[in-house]
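Give me the fold.
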Amino acid sequence: MSRLKIIGNYLSPYVRKVLVCLELKGIDYEIDPIAPFVGDDHFTRLSPLRRIPVLIDDGFVLNDSSVICQYLEDSYPAPALYPRDINDRALARWLEEYADTRLADGLIWRLFYQLAIQRHIFGEATDEAVVKQAREVEIPAALDYLENQMPDDGFLFRTLSIADISIASFFRTASFVRYTIDATRWPRTAALVELVQSQPVFQKLARYEDCMLRLPLAEQRAALNTIGAPLSVDTYGTSTPRHGVSRG
């Protein structure tokens, strides 16, 4: 059986979600850790929206992190990352979708993009009004909703699920621009994120993330190779970034 391949950067919350699923299910994979902004024309053919992650399984290509995670669950059902109860499973999928869209709007596309991508990848000025709106309006509104969905303790559905993984993945990326949840205002959400991020699989991936954090894109692959990341031999990356839609 050929090794699964993931195209996508370790710092992406969408990529992290897929990698956590792969790791928990014990699936052998390799990764081409490019940012979507430097994907070549072949990457565009694989991902017509120029989004990450992309999964390639023996020539079968899939886009979108939620589609990929469901495919992995169907193909490798143990351990289950979606609740067995039909109502819980539907709610887990909803919370995954909420994280991928509403939560991501504030944490990633307003905050992280402005403070990290806009500034360091494209060399463009940060729009401080967008950052202020994210911190003061968008993110608090999303957290207010999440807080009402959180359990008093433990995981959302008793064992680690796609919902826990998704939510924690976005706050991990937001931490790279020094965003942390105010535990006095949203204590249950803060506790859940801390619990999930303390899991061995998140800690394993954090080692790769930390080694490339704040390195120029051109230097990240070499840094990952040094610490033994499961890199692909080839890459779809180029040296020139370009704007494009990159939600996964």
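DSSP finds nine helices and four strands in the chain.
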